Amino acid sequence: MKILIIGGGNMGMTYAHSFLRSHITSKQDMMILERSPEKAAELATKDIGTVYGQPDECMTRADLIILAVKPQDAASLFASIRHTVDAQQVFLSIMAGVQIATISEALGAKKIIRAMPNLPAQIGMGMTAFTSSEEVTRIELVTVQNLLNTTGKTVYVENESAIDGATAISGSGPAYVWFFMNAMLKAAQNMGFTYSESELLVRQTFQGAIELYNATDYSFEEWIQKVCSKGGTTEAALNTYRKNDLEQRIINGATAALHRAQELGSK
Ligand SMILES: NC(=O)c1ccc[n+]([C@@H]2O[C@H](COP(=O)([O-])OP(=O)(O)OC[C@H]3O[C@@H](n4cnc5c(N)ncnc54)[C@H](OP(=O)(O)O)[C@@H]3O)[C@@H](O)[C@H]2O)c1
Asked: What does the domain layout of the chain look like in residue ranges?
């Protein structure tokens, strides 16, 4: 299967490297279309497939076309490739907020998969939610899921509106985690630790908590109950968080992200 990645930026290159690293495709089957001549010249030196500057040079050769440009560049991209689109080609879009119906109408294409990855995809630890138009066959869907799996874990959602939910949870989620980590880092510094000591305390605590959680069958709630002894230090912290309604505030934040994703998608 010939894969064409349109947009040789952060995500486009994340996919190219992940696919090649996992040997799910070969350099011979990989094409990259990048509009910036400087970037294209640089990519050509990286030995990750054939790099093109014009859609007409590569579009018709591709079975799967990955749309990895910024959403604001979508309209001009669509206009530049529409005349080359074949009904059998499968499109995988990772453009935030650009709906399947928009892509289908703009390209005259029917087989469209829409995915929402997140930043840790860069190191194979990503979380991607994806959905598809009815015309995508089971085999095509599995093929694309296998490709996405090279960047981390994936979940298929029936309803396209769930992509907005995934944007709010896993898409924006790494920043929520860093926000909490940063607050803990500040608390550690207030207690007299140096920056690097604080950073180590926080980083290892998060890493350890995740690894321990992964190693057992307990839920988050159960773990919280297990470590909160009556009258203890952990309980003192959690009581303060609860008194300040922190849980609801975190939910409110994620909900604000959902509303923003819906708003951007409707434009
Ligand atoms: N980064 C993430 O974690 C993440 C997560 C979820 C979804 N996404 C989505 O992934 C997409 C790509 O994000 P990114 O961070 O990889 O962006 P990026 O680094 O800016 O890469 C996009 C690349 O596409 C090129 N490009 C734009 N229009 C083109 C065209 N018509 N033909 C060929 N190349 C074109 C751009 O060239 P120029 O430099 O000339 O503009 C740029 O090199 C976005 O739609 C974003 O919503 C990203």
From this structure: 3-166, 173-265
Q: 174 C-alpha to center of ligand 1: Å? A: 19
Name the residue at shortest CA distance from atom 42 of ligand 1: 9
Q: Could you tell me the pLDDT band of residue 266, with boundaries at 50, 70 and 90?
A: confident
Q: 183: pLDDT confidence band, cut at 50, 70 and 90?
A: very high
Atom from ligand 1 closest to the CA of residue 33:
33
CA nearest to 59, candidates 109, 22, 100: 109
* Cβ–ligand 1 contact at 80 (below 6 Å): yes
Secondary structure (DSSP) of 145-164? HHHHHTTEEEEE-SSTTHHH
Q: Domain 173-265: give its CATH superfamily.
A: ProC C-terminal domain-like (1.10.3730.10)
**Pocket mutation for ligand 1, best pick of 73, 84, 95, 98 (most atoms within 8 Å of C-beta):** 73
Q: Where are the beta strands (DSSP E) in the chain?
A: 3-6, 30-33, 50-52, 64-67, 90-93, 112-116, 126-132, 152-156
Q: How many CA atoms lie within 13 A of 125 on its CB side?
A: 4
Regarding the domain delimited by 3-166, which CATH topology (the fold level of the hierarchy) does it fall under? Rossmann fold (3.40.50)
Using DSSP's 3-state secondary structure scheme, residue 3 falls into strand
Report if pTM > 0.90: yes
> Tens digits of per-residue pLDDT, 97-146?
999 999 999 999 999 999 999 999 999 999 999 999 999 999 999 999 99
The answer to whether the 3-166 and 173-265 domains have the same CATH topology is no
Query: Does the C-beta of 8 come closer than 6 Å to ligand 1?
Result: yes
- Distance from chain centroid for Cα 261: 14
